[in-house]
Amino acid sequence: MAVDVEAFRKEVYNVVASIPFGKVLSYGQIAWLVGCPNHSRLVGRMLHGAAESEGLPCHRVVNNVGRLAPGWIKQRHLLEEEGVTFRPNGCVDMKKWQWKLDE
Fold first, then answer.
1. What pLDDT does 31 receive?
2. Which PANTHER family match (predicted)?
3. Residue 48 reports pLDDT greater than 90
4. H, E, C per residue of the chain
């Protein structure tokens, strides 16, 4: 399936902008929400650098087990400021902090 990259980017940004304070979503969940469930890596590429340029809360996006973005040291601090806690392995506790879309 070919993806309209600009439309995909817009939809990804809309989802990320709507993630509530103190909650997280995974790249895969965002891909699923925008109708492209096999494009979680593309979600990551769309978000790389978008936090500053677009004013998006990209720090609220983690991988499916709660692992933070590699090399983005500030991400953990931003999440902790929102009250998000981490498991001993350094990953976000997804059972506790994952945004349940029916909330």
1. 96
2. 6-O-METHYLGUANINE DNA METHYLTRANSFERASE (PTHR42942), ALKYLTRANSFERASE-LIKE PROTEIN 1 (PTHR42942:SF1)
3. no
4. CCCCHHHHHHHHHHHHHHCCCCCEEEHHHHHHHCCCCCCHHHHHHHHCCHHHHHCCCHHHEECCCCCCCCCCCHHHHHHHHCCCCECCCCCECHHHHECCCCC
